[in-house]
Design brief:
There is one protein chain. Helix content is 29%, strand content 19%. The protein is built from 14 helices and 19 strands. It has a 7-stranded mixed sheet with strand order 9-11-10-12-13-14-19, sandwiched between helices. Strands 1-7-8-4-6-5 form a 6-stranded antiparallel sheet. A two-stranded antiparallel ribbon has the order 2-3. A hairpin with a 2-residue loop joins strand 5 and strand 6. It starts with a helix and ends with a helix.
Length: 501
């Protein structure tokens, strides 16, 4: 499906919304409204519709189901699970917040567990037949190429001045981060009610927005996919002492994977961790890994190479090249980190710097000896992803070799670095195919990653901690409060990693 075909349904939908709003605003003309909230069709068409452009990775993509939050994620948009050509959901596709108005952007991850909930807008419910409460899952957007001259207050005021369907409260912006990256700033923002200027932003489409002249008039980009590196936090007045780099699981969203279910906009890596570790720079890395993608071939080696290149790009400055790194990996993300460490050993000097900088690793539900989910093989039978999924199952020769090489690399280069393996204590519903050809996490509950599989590597207990979490596979990395007992356990292990330096 071409890009024009993808965008036309959304344009039609927005036109209907515009017409309805204009009729209602005429009827309520006597109610005073601020100039910043008045609707301007010319502004929306000029600033948003004409500037919507497809992502370079988006060619031929359609919507996909996100299993990480077990919700529909259009932002990952790789394989059609339901016949919806142009709806996007941030938390569903990988980004944490999925649909046009707001949804949780995690993707369908065969390693993830959670109850089914839809990130789709209301007008698509009849098509997907999933229940959804958009108000409980606002999506998060990523804004990039922001000039370094803009501070957080200026950005907040600009976002508040945009156009909304109705008058919004002063606390409409639920969460906002702003951090430097390369020669610009990157922001993540979660709205209670999204500005109309952003409604065209969806999976695999990057939106170009021009800032007003008083903010330099620069062109910034807005997306929901969160591919590549996203800086979530940087110490405001100093250089960070450590980099924490988080890698999500298969078909997962780099933001939504780590976002809590209640409150639905809290993402602990962005909103909680900096309170306890203010000298950290916190980064996430996202990658395309939809199992139903009919084009791409998936393998852990290629993902690990992409990860190493992204890390090098985020540490180009001399002051960052040797900054200590703590890796955080969930499910497949942990395997990618292990393979990246293996590859860095024999690659370029720049990759070797990443290996030498590794201070410790936190692994959550990583299937070192394979995933206990044989029905996934039947779901991907005949697809390009079938060999990849086979390599992730229990008894995999590929995983055995990866584990052997990692233990050897650890002994030679990382000895005494602390590795912490968190493992799930609850079963996860398996994914089954629905009569309409979609996927639903409503199958028989199983232990997705066993304790043995999650903790089998590195025999020395003094450098490898095994920590149980009373959670299913998906919620292993979803912490909602600073006093969450599981989050406190993570903080304890991070402090122990730091004490070993």
């Amino acid at each position: 499906m071409g890009n024009d075909e993808q965008s036309s349904p959304n344009r039609s939908f927005d036109s209907e919304r515009v017409s309805r709003w204009r009729r209602s605003s005429t009827a309520k003309a006597e109610r005073p409204r601020s100039a910043s909230r008045r609707f301007s069709l010319k502004k929306i068409i000029g600033a948003t519709f004409r500037r919507s452009r497809p992502s370079s990775l988006a060619s031929g993509r359609t919507a996909s189901y996100n299993d990480e939050t077990a919700s529909y994620n259009d932002e990952t948009a790789t394989t059609p699970i339901v016949p919806i050509p142009s709806v996007t959901s941030q938390d569903t596709h990988p980004a944490d917040d999925s649909s046009r108005r707001g949804v949780d952007h995690s993707r369908l991850d065969p390693f993830r567990i959670s109850s089914i909930q839809s990130d789709l807008p209301a007008h698509t419910h009849s098509m997907v037949k999933l229940k959804s409460d958009l108000s409980s899952s606002p999506r998060t957007l990523r804004l990039s190429l922001i000039p370094t001259s803009i501070d957080k207050d200026q950005l907040r005021n600009y976002l508040a001045s945009l156009t909304y369907e109705a008058q919004v409260s002063d606390d409409n912006i639920l969460a906002l981060s702003l951090a430097p990256y390369k020669k610009w700033l990157v922001a993540t923002v979660t709205f209670r009610v999204e500005p109309l200027e952003f409604t065209e932003c969806r999976s695999n489409h990057i939106l170009d927005i021009q800032l007003p002249p008083q903010l330099s008039g620069a062109l910034i980009t807005v997306d929901t996919d969160f591919y590549g590196i996203t800086p979530l936090y940087h110490p405001p007045q100093s250089e960070p002492k450590y980099d924490l780099i988080a890698v999500c699981g298969l078909s997962a969203h780099a933001f939504g994977s780590w976002k809590s279910h209640s409150p639905s906009y809290t993402m602990w890596l962005r909103d909680i961790l900096p309170l306890d570790f203010p000298d950290f720079r916190v980064l996430t890395w996202g990658y395309e890994s939809d199992l139903k993608d009919p084009i791409a071939n998936r393998n852990i080696t290629s993902f690990s190479r992409q990860l190493l290149m992204a890390i090098r790009g985020a540490r180009e400055l001399a002051m960052a090249k040797h900054r200590p790194i703590i890796f955080v990996g969930h499910s497949l993300g942990g395997l990618i980190i292990k393979q990246g460490v293996n590859a860095a050993e024999g690659n370029s000097p720049n990759d070797k710097e990443v290996l030498d900088s590794c201070l410790g690793m936190l692994f959550f539900g990583v299937p070192n000896r394979g995933l206990n989910n044989d029905n996934m093989l039947s779901l991907v039978k005949g697809m390009k992803s079938a060999p990849f999924v086979h390599d992730l199952m229990e008894g995999s020769e590929m995983l055995r070799i990866l584990d052997y090489r990692f233990e050897r690399t650890y002994e030679e280069h990382l000895k005494s670095r602390l590795v912490v393996s968190f493992y799930e204590m609850k079963d996860t519903n398996t994914i089954i195919e629905t009569p309409g050809g979609g996927w639903s996490r409503t199958g028989k509950p199983i232990r997705m990653v066993s304790q043995d599989s999650a903790t089998c590597f590195i025999r020395a207990k003094e450098v490898h901690h095994h920590i149980p979490i009373i959670s299913d596979h998906s919620r292993l990395v979803k912490f909602c409060r600073r006093d969450d007992q599981n989050y406190l356990a993570v903080c304890l292990e991070i402090n122990e990693i730091l004490s070993c330096t």
